[in-house]
Specification:
There is one protein chain. By secondary structure, the protein is of the alpha+beta class. The chain has one domain: Orthogonal Bundle (Arc Repressor Mutant, subunit A), CATH 1.10.10. It has three helices and three strands. Strands 1-3-2 form a three-stranded antiparallel sheet. α2 crosses α3. The protein is globular and about 40 Å long. It starts with a helix and ends with a strand.
Length: 78
C-alpha cells in the first residue's frame, strides 16, 4: 500500500473514531489495528501534528492501571 495513501487513511480513521468519543493513544492504535496493520509508534506523530494544527485538544485522566492517560478530543475544526 502506498505510504501517503496509508497516512491519509490513518488520519481519517483517527478523526472518525474521535468523532464518536474521546480516546487515548494506545486505545486508538488498538481500535485501528482491528482493520489495518499499523505500528504503535506511527500514530503518536500523527496525533501530535493534528493537535498542533488545532484538530484536537488533550486532557489527562487518572488510570487505575498506571500513570494518567492523555485523551484526545475533537475540536470544532476537527
Amino acid at each position: 500500500m502506498n505510504i501517503q495513501f496509508k497516512k491519509g487513511v490513518l488520519e481519517l480513521c483517527v478523526l472518525a473514531l474521535l468523532k464518536k468519543q474521546d480516546f487515548y493513544g494506545y486505545e486508538l492504535v488498538h481500535r485501528i489495528s482491528e482493520n489495518i496493520t499499523i505500528a504503535e509508534g506511527t500514530i503518536y506523530p500523527l496525533l501530535r501534528r493534528l493537535t498542533l494544527e488545532g484538530y484536537f485538544t488533550t486532557y489527562l485522566q487518572e488510570s487505575a492501571e498506571g500513570p494518567p492517560r492523555k485523551y484526545y478530543r475533537l475540536t470544532e475544526k476537527g
